[in-house]
Amino acid sequence: MTPANLILRGIPASPGIVIGRARVISDTGEVQNSFRLVYTEEERLAELERFRLAVEQAEEDLLRVKEEVSQEFPEHVHLFELQLMILKDQMFHKDTLRLIKENNLNAEWALYQSFEKVKNLFSRIQDPYIRGRVQDVDAVYRRLLGNLSGWAPQRYLSSSEPIIIVARDLSPAETTQMASSRVLGFVTERGTKTSHTAILAQSLEIPAVVGLDNATRQIANGTNLILDGLTGRVVLEPGDRLLTTYQTRKQEFETFKSEVGRSSELPAITLDQFATQVLANLELPEEVQLALKYGADGVGLYRTEFIYLRQRQLPTEEELFEDYRRVVVAMQPKPVTIRTLDLGGDKFLSHLEYAPEMNPALGLRAIRFCLREQGIFRTQLKAILRASAYGRVRVMFPLISSVREVWEGRELLQSVQEELTKEGHPFDPQLPVGVMIEVPAAVTLAPLLAREADFFSIGTNDLIQYALAIDRGNKQVADMYQPLHPAVLRMITLAVEAARQAGIPIAMCGEMAGDYLYVPILLGLGLNELSMNAMAIPVIKHVIRRLTLREVREMTLQVLEMPTVEEINDFVFGQMQQRFPEIYRFGSALVGTS
Question: Are 273 and 65 in contact (CB under 8 A)?
Fold first, then answer.
């Protein structure tokens, strides 16, 4: 019997509080006990046919769900397009066929081996957003395994009463079906805040807690639950007192969310009429609709890595052009800033092979890799330039640490422009070229770099890591990753001053830009363009519209006199809690991740 008021803790993935009974879903299609070898040609052909039929059925199911979703949630169609692409991916689909043919494996075990290979590849990628895409591969894997094993992936979806799903994991397809069912929310054992399932739940406003270990074992079917998607808590068999507390908290949050939502379409202008731009960080073309939904003033960072990671062949100029053009056209007339490739050779699924690096973060990546592999870089620059004919485009080079890198990047860009002119392709000849300020060297060289750049964009994720010598993925030192560290604030100040002296714009596109607690200090330092996860935009605009430039400058002057990060944190957090108690209480639940 479950004790009353038992509290389990997971990761808050989608904000909201719901109260209802648990519907526990157990997968029965595990692969561990399905290993066997096939010996005859007849058996191999039978396994190949079983896998072919499983893929065919999965494709039909995904196309059907995609069509259903496109009617009500067109901004999420890309999730199913991505899974359809994974379904036929060489490393997934063709490798499974090869293992059946060459290693005499049955279809389930060959599929499992292919999935493990792809999963291991993604696990080596540092970017948490890209690394999280392995969950889309997992969703396809589970769908195929279900087809091979005979259990259906849609496992729960009729109920006469409101329910809270408890499962090992859920696919995006299953999540979209919740929007039109009596599912109040869900708890999963797997998942992260950046998984497509979590992002989808946020957009559909389905409260969710993920990463709760052994949830399907700890929670019995029919258990009364409170699911708190604000904190990641799941309360089992809550008593009357706790129920009353959470019902009050639920109402307060709904009121706050409604108020913040009204700010999303309004301009981000302070009370004393200082205008700022609040833009979105994007990964895929299809995310533009979410950015527009949340009121983005443009795209401040379009990451271009995923198209290189999702296939073994390098993308062609046409594929890249179409990818970028879709974003530019959809955002028109708002600006789109495209970051050139920020990966190293060891991260490609392609034929490129490099020696393993002891520390990839300090190795051949970003602009260094692009200048080494100029064929790849030229193809991307051509695609970006061609897309610039369809709207307002800016390009920026990542991980710049010397003026020469900017010179060489611009020289290649000029050469590509000449090539496009000969080919008859239109482009913007005045395409703005920006430099990302991500390493201490770029900060110290900022006055020189500003002479060569049309704009700056500060990438705080790397800048903080390099400035403080902190690997935030290392649990031993992760707590030392402090955005308000005096050294970080002084570096931002130097970059802003260099941009001001040169008369060029300066933006910030790292996670720091999307945290409402830091907004007053960033405005006070002189930044007036912030780019972030689209979900954070309404909260950030809400904060900006309730500040004055005068008060944030006064706060910032005080902060810059403080010698320790502890003192700065206490001051800033205290000021924000006093000024915005409701945002301090609920704001982090609505900003997602950048």
Answer: no
pLDDT of res. 535: 84
Cβ within 8 Å of residue 422, ≥6 positions away:
none
Establish whether 509 is a catalytic residue: yes
Higher pLDDT, 406 or 264: 406
The first and second tokens of residue 554, run together, are: 């006064």
Tokens of 109: 């075990």
The reply to whether 251 falls in a domain is no
Instruction: Report the DSSP beta bridge partners of residue 187.
Output: 166, 209
pLDDT of residue 442 exceeding 70, the answer is: yes
Answer yes or no: 196 catalytic: yes
Secondary structure class of 466 (helix, strand, coil): helix
DSSP helix/strand/coil, 381: helix
Average model confidence (pLDDT) across the chain = 87
pLDDT of residue 54: 92
Given a cut of 60, whether residue 246 has pLDDT beyond it is yes
Question: Which listed residue (196, 370, 485, 542) is catalytic?
Answer: 196
Domain that holds residue 399: 261-590
- Residue 23 has phi, psi (to 5 degrees) of -115, 105
Shared domain for 239 and 103, answered yes or no, is no
**Residues 76, 370, 485, 509: which is the catalytic one?**
509
| Global confidence as pTM | 0.78
Across 176-216, where does the E strand assignment appear?
A: 183-188, 208-210
- The single-letter DSSP state of residue 360 is G
For 420, 429, 532, the CA distances from 426, given in Å and listed in that order, are 7, 9, 31
Residue 101 falls inside a structural domain: yes
The DSSP call for residue 105 is B
| pLDDT tops 80 at residue 377 | yes
Cβ-proximal residues to 33 (8 Å cutoff; 6+ apart), any chain? none
Write down the residue that tokens 């709760």 correspond to.
212
